[in-house]
Amino acid sequence: MLLATQLERVFILKDKGQDIKLTDPEPRWSVEAVMNFYANIYPILTTAKISAPQIKDDAVEYKFESIMGTKG
Predict the structure, then answer these.
(1) What pLDDT does 67 receive?
(2) Degrees (nearest 5) of the Cα angle 35, 38, 44?
(3) Strands (E) located in 1-72
(4) What is the predicted pLDDT for the residue at 30?
(5) What share of the chain is helix, strand, coil (3-state, %, to 5)?
(6) What's the half-sphere exposure (Cβ side, CA atoms, 13 Å) at 50?
(7) Considering Cα of 48, then 67, then 42, then 11, what sign does the dihedral take?
(8) How far apart are CA 63 and CA 11, in angstroms?
(9) Are 59 and 8 in contact (CB under 8 A)?
(10) CA angle 34, 38, 42 (to 5 degrees)
(11) Can you give the pTM of this predicted structure?
């Protein structure tokens, strides 16, 4: 018998060289809505992009990547 389960969503934010693991505040929200929710705490997310999801350790992992470049 085949059993289907929904994988947990995990969000990763890379800030100052460290990966910050963010939990899913509401599974029914879109990935963009989750990013907007966390943008209140992490302002760098206001200019971030979302990477393609990857399945890792029985969870779907999304990475929020800053698109801010360095000037110079």
Answers:
(1) 73
(2) 80
(3) 8-15, 18-22, 48-50, 54-56, 59-66
(4) 95
(5) 20, 40, 45
(6) 16
(7) positive
(8) 6
(9) yes
(10) 150
(11) 0.81
In tens digits, the chain (72 residues) has pLDDT values of 888 888 999 999 987 788 999 999 999 999 999 999 999 999 999 989 999 999 998 899 999 988 765 555
Rounded to 5 degrees, what are φ and ψ at 13? -115, 125
Record the tokens describing residue 10, joined without a space: 């995990």
Q: How far is residue 44's CA from residue 49's CA, in Å, rounded to a whole number? A: 10
Cα–Cα distance between 63 and 49 in angstroms, integer?
8
By C-alpha distance, which of 38, 37, 7 is closest to 20? 38
pLDDT at site 71: 54
